[in-house]
Amino acid sequence: MAKFTIKLGDITKEKVDAIVNAANTTLLGGGGVDGAIHRVAGPALDVACARLHGCPTGEARITPGFELPAHYVIHTPGPIWQGGNHNEAILLANSYRNSLELAIKNGCQTIAFPSISTGVYAYPLEEAAKVAVKTIKTVLEQYPQLEVTMVCFDLQTYQAYLGAVKRK
Ligand code: AR6
User: Which SMART domains would you find in this protein's record (predicted)?
Assistant: First the structure.
């Protein structure tokens, strides 16, 4: 049976096959979790990302994890919240689903996600958690070997994802 866990923590410390990065469409790094991942992975990640020449919102790209404990980093730009009528929910679901599918294609079984789009990109937390949990659970039904963890950086985020799991 697939495992789905919500935890509080720092995703750069996760010893998993792949961590997901809440990136931007340039893939050239930024603040938030993206900045933290690039700092710990080291400059080789910047070089690998530059070679990818960006990524459209909702799609995903893979690189090695370099100095991170995770083997791979999967980079996905989530949607910027623009009020909710700009395909935000579909694009956010695409980010989760495409990241999982790319991880599976690369033989990953253990995958950790941050809360995509709920920081700088201002996606309302409760709504984002609902989309994330629903999308991850749907993929997990087809892939019983997977172990997916949501790594929440603060208590409010942790509680929102726990709530979304309970309500499902
Ligand atoms: N581990 C886990 N989660 C973290 C960590 C960490 N080390 N650090 C921050 N978070 P954000 P976005 C949480 O803003 O909204 C970047 O500049 C954070 O508390 O990182 O998708 C990119 O380059 C929040 O809950 O990502 C883009 O330009 C969550 O990660 C833009 O920000 C996401 O917040 C993407 O914005």
Answer: A1pp
**What's the pLDDT score for residue 168?**
63
CATH number of 121's domain: 3.40.220.10
Q: What ligand 1 atom has the least distance to the C-alpha of 37?
A: 7
Decide if 10 is catalytic: no
Determine which one of 10, 34, 46, 154 is catalytic: 34
Low-confidence ranges of the chain (pLDDT < 70): 168
Six-digit token string for 45? 């990640």
> What is the rounded CA–CA span in Å between residue 134 and residue 140?
10
- At 120-130, the pLDDT tens digits run 999 999 999 99
The pLDDT value recorded for residue 2 is 86
Pocket perturbation via mutation, ligand 1, pick of 16, 33, 88 by most ligand atoms within 8 A of CB: 33
Tell me the backbone φ, ψ of residue 72, rounded to 5 degrees.
-125, 155
Residue numbers of the domain that contains 89: 3-167
Find the 29 Cα to ligand 1 centroid distance in Å.
11
Given a contact cutoff of 8 angstroms between Cβ atoms, the answer to whether 69 and 15 are in contact is yes
Alpha carbon of 26 to those of 3, 118, 159: distances in Å? 32, 19, 31
Inter-axis angle of helices 155-167 and 125-142, nearest 10: 50
User: Per the structure, how many domains does the chain have?
Assistant: 1
